[in-house]
Amino acid sequence: MTIEQIIAGVIVGIFVLICAAGKSKTEEPPDPKDLEVRTNTDGSAAVINYKTEDVIGTFSTRAEAEAFLAELKA
């Protein structure tokens, strides 16, 4: 093994450690009771976490969004 390979290995190892340390914790799935369906102006709909305003999913119709939300709450 040459010195260049050793140095490259050390650099890759440091990079992996930095990436692992900076990686966010696994997010908890949203609580279904915090979700609601909102209709967009174009008629499509979205399931939103109203506490964080995160979009959980978008759908072409409100009925599809409500069915999705019903599955999550089941």
Structure, explained:
With 74 residues, the protein is an alpha+beta fold. It has a three-stranded antiparallel beta sheet with strand order 1-2-3, covered by helices on one side. The chain is elongated and about 65 Å long.
What is the topology?
Blueprint: H1 3-22, E1 35-39, E2 45-49, E3 54-59, H2 62-73
Antiparallel strand pairs: 1-2, 2-3
By secondary-structure content and strand pairing, the structural class works out as: alpha+beta
Major sheet attributes? 3 strands, antiparallel
> Taking Cα atoms only, what radius of gyration do you get, to the nearest Å?
22 Å
Query: If you average the pLDDT, what whole number results?
Result: 83
What's the helical proportion of residues?
Answer: 40-55%
Q: With helices defined by DSSP (H or I, 4 residues minimum), what is the helix count?
A: 2
Q: Name the strands of the widest sheet in spatial order.
A: 1-2-3
Given as residue ranges, the uncertain stretches (5+ residues, pLDDT < 50) are none
Instruction: Spell out the helices and strands N to C.
Output: HEEEH
The span between the termini is 58 Å
How much strand content do the residues show?
15-25%
Number of DSSP E strands: 3
What would you call the shape?
A: elongated
